[in-house]
Amino acid sequence: MAEALSDLPTQHPRDVVRALVGALPYVQRWAGQIVVVKVGGAMMGSAAQLDVVCQDLVMLRAVGVKVVLVHGGGPAVSDMGRRLGLETTFVDGLRVTDDETMRVAQLVQIGGISRDLIGGISRSGGRGVGLAGHDGGGWLRGQIRRHVSRATGEVVDLGRVGDIVRVDTELLLAQVAAGFIPVIAPVAVDDDFRPLNVNADTVASKVAGALGAPRLLFMSDVEGIRGPAGFVSEVDAATLHEWIVSGIVSGGMVPKVEACLEALTAGVPRVSIMDGRVEHAALLELLTDAGAGTLVVP
User: Fold this and answer.
1) How far apart are CA 100 and CA 85, in angstroms?
2) pLDDT tens sequence across 21-75
3) Which of 23, 145, 151, 171 is most buried, with most CB under 10 Å away?
C-alpha cells in the first residue's frame, strides 16, 4: 500500500483533509441511498476512461452509496457485426435486431463489456457482479416492441428489440446488500426466455424507477442536452417534451431524453445526462455543487 500511495501526486495533507471534509455533507446525503449509473457504449473505447469511472463507483460504494451500474454497447456491437458481415440499420435511434444480431449483442455486451467493467471495478478494490435478463429466473422481462416510425407514422418491424415490462428487484437488492456493484447488460428476456435487445437508457430508467432510486446518472460522450441556444445545465420535463416534438432534440438523443422523462414519471426525482469524458464526473455530480452535465427535473 505504501508503494501505491507513493505514486500519487504530491499534495499537502491539509488539502487532502479539506477536500474530504468538504465532501462530508454530500456523503451524508447519499450514504445508504441507491444511485443508478448508466455508462454509454460510446465510452467503451477508452480503457483509461472506464477505469476512472470504475474508480468513482468504487469510491461511492466505499462511502456507503449503493451503486447499480447499467451499460450500453452499441458501437461495439456495430463493430463486431461489421466484422461478421452483418448490416446495421437504425430506426429512430433503435437498432434493428434480427436473430444473428441478437447473438452478437449478447456476445459483446454480456460476454465482453460486462466482464471489462467488472474487471475495472475489481482493479479499484471493489466487487462487481454481472447480470442480464436470463439471470435469477428472468429478473428483467420484456416483450417485442411495436414501434411506430416518427418519420412515416408506420409500424416498423425492429426484430428482437424489446420493451421492459417487469423488473424483479429481489436479485438486485440482494447483490447490493452483499456489497456488490451489479453490472447490468441491456438484454432482457421474453416469457419464453428468449433474449431481447433493449435500449440501455430504457433499462437504466426502468431499474431506477423499480428500485426507488433518488438519482439516475446517464454518462455519455456528449456535454449534455442542447436546447435552441445550445447546452443547458438544467431543464424541466415539460420543456424537454416540447423539444422532442419540435425536433430540437433528435436522433440518438431522443431515446436518452425519453428515458429521463420516463424515470421522472416513475418517481426518480433527479436525472442527469453527464459528460463522461470529464474526469471523475460521477463524483463531481454527487459530491460537489459543480455538476458535469444537464440536470433534468420534474
Assistant:
1) 11
2) 888 888 899 999 999 999 987 777 678 888 999 999 999 999 999 999 999 988 8
3) 145
